Amino acid sequence: MSVAATIECPICAGAVGLPADVMLGELLECDDCGSELEVAAVSPTPSVREAPLSAEDWGQ
């Protein structure tokens, strides 16, 4: 993964690398705290937020 930018984790304030080809809605993981983060904005300023928890429906 080629890192184009670094952004602050909203959970622990650790550094999270954003790939050069990051897309809106993409899920990333914070290396410091392990939180799953969702890309909330790509431009003009990239931002991430804690990813929503989704319930597993087990195919139902």
Keywords:
60 residues, 0% helix, 40% strand, two-stranded antiparallel ribbon, mainly beta, Rubrerythrin, domain 2, 3-stranded antiparallel beta sheet, single chain
Strand content: 35-45%
Overall strand count: 5
What is the CATH topology descriptor?
Answer: Rubrerythrin, domain 2
- Derived from helix and strand composition plus strand pairing, the structural class reads mainly beta
Give the termini distance in whole angstroms: 35 Å
Uncertain spans: none
Question: Main β-sheet, in a few words?
Answer: 3 strands, antiparallel
Give the count of structural domains: 1
Rounded average pLDDT: 88
Which CATH class applies here? Mainly Beta
Q: Cα-atom Rg, whole angstroms?
A: 12 Å
What series of H and E elements makes up the topology?
A: EEEEE
Question: What is the correct CATH architecture?
Answer: Single Sheet
Describe the strand arrangement of the main beta sheet, using strand numbers.
3-4-5
How many H/I helical runs? Answer: 0
Shape: globular
Q: Percent range for helical residues?
A: under 10%
